[in-house]
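Task card 7
Instruction: Convert sequence to structure tokens.
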Amino acid sequence: MSLCSIISAQFLLIYVKRLQAKYKRLLLELEFLYEDLEYHEDVQDDARREFQRAFLAYCTSQNINYDTDIIKEDVKDIKSSDPDAISFHDEDGVDVDEDVRQLDKKGKPEQISKLFKQIATKTHPDKFANADKEAQIINKQVFLQAKEAAEESNYFKLQQIARRMGIDLPNPTQNDLKLMKDEARRIKSQIKGIQNTAAWMWYDLEEEKPRKDLMKRYFDTVRRRNMI
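Output:
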């Protein structure tokens, strides 16, 4: 083997190792982000309930009847007083919804189609038409999870499903890393969107004065939208 061939092989090995290291780091990041998103979604439910109660109390303190003054007959857009529909962006001015829309507009990459096909080949309900009921249910559930992940262009979830099934994944490529970076960015945008809602921001505040100030901002926004 020539010296040039040896050097090329060494550089290729270094390149592959770097890709694998970046891939592992992205896997860990995505695992954390999904846990973080689940946490935010769980807390958001509590935040929404408590914020709505506080908002009704604030309306009462302002001599405003929520049912007759906020929800008017001629106001069809109920979201005008929905605490999840009114957001206060951070100073960086991030447009969360636009980030998500731009990512969703992209077509499904080849890696996703190929991996879904591998999973579907092993789990499609037609393959288990004559199997016992338990096998039918389990494989159908896996198939539907993979289908949902593919439709959402969620390469990370597809890989998780493939690993659980014992499907060997090829060495990561730059395109794989890009897919996973896009997924991480999408999850961060979802978390940011939750954090930017009035309900979350109010719930996350610990001191009473900042809470009152934010509630006033929210009330004024609702009042302008509904022309109270």
